[in-house]
Amino acid sequence: MSDYTIICPCYWIDELLFEENLQSWLNNIPTHRVILGVNRAILYPFLEKMRDKYPVIELVDQTHLKTLGMCLADLMKIVDTEWFVYCHSDARLTPHAFLIMQQYQKEDVGIIESHREEWDGSTVKVWNCKEAIPKLSAKTYFFLDRSFSGIQLIQKVALEELINRMEDDYLYRNEDMIFHAEAHKNGYKYCKTWAMHIHIITNTQWSHNDEVTHMMQYRGFIKYTEPNDVTKINCLAGVKHMKATYNLTIASILEFCYIHSNAWAEVIAEYWDDLDTNEWVLRIHRGE
Q: Which of 2, 133, 205, 253 counts the highest number of beta carbons within 10 A?
């Protein structure tokens, strides 16, 4: 395989850890171009230092954009390779993991997911080790139906239609599942792998408050996906939270659905009353 473009939108950056994350990409992914989107002006001094130190880095000003989705579309449009790697700034690729991901590259594959283990900054002292080591706990993400971003190898053509119609609106903390749905809709496979990266979750800040985040969650699914078992559960989870916490009315959500998707209007109407319990999840699992 030829080399790959790496893209990474930057909003929250841990300056003490980011360079090691970057080095893990450069040491494992053949690349001629790392495109970092700068979504907050305060990041410029640090990222300019990184660009000066690593000539493959390009900085793209994204301070005028409001959402992660538009930042990603902005970066994906200038990708110049058939396959590219989407990295989170807080994701560290383990040695040889990318070689595993490459084994899944096929013409009919759209996205290849690296399995994540998570590190929250805690450490543990082991009797035969001089220094405390990071404390990780085993995660089950590989076995779940939904997708998880962090480090993904993506065939650009699988998402190109979506990339060109994305707007600066509702893609935030849901983009992995929306990309997953889009790849399947366009006839491409989504591959989970045991290629591993460490997702560093020492920063738990969100770019938006709880209400806006959950509003974007369900609206992103309604505008950009078709209902299936995976998208239904994750869209309705956002709707359930908004209904219980912020008194979302069925009239307001149906109004949004009728603008973007009659199919989602039918789903919302069908499950609305069951959202007050967990019956809606059981119904979806039963295929009802």
A: 253
Amino acid at 193: T
In whole angstroms, give the CA distance from residue 117 to residue 92: 10
d(CA 248, CA 258): 16
> Are 108 and 90 a contacting pair, CB within 8 Å?
no
Distance CA 280, CA 96 (A): 42
Q: Provide the residue type at 41 as one letter.
A: A
What is the DSSP secondary-structure string of 137-150? Answer: B---GGGSSS---S
* Residue-wise pLDDT tens digits, 109-140: 999 999 999 998 899 998 888 888 888 878 99
Q: Tokens 């490459």 identify what position? A: 102
Residue carrying structure tokens 């690349």: 31
SS3 (DSSP) at 186: coil
Q: What is the CA radius of gyration of the chain?
A: 20
Q: How far separated are the first and last CA of the chain, in Å rounded?
A: 44
pTM: 0.94
Map out the domains of the chain with their CATH numbers: 4-200 (3.90.550.10), 210-286 (no CATH)
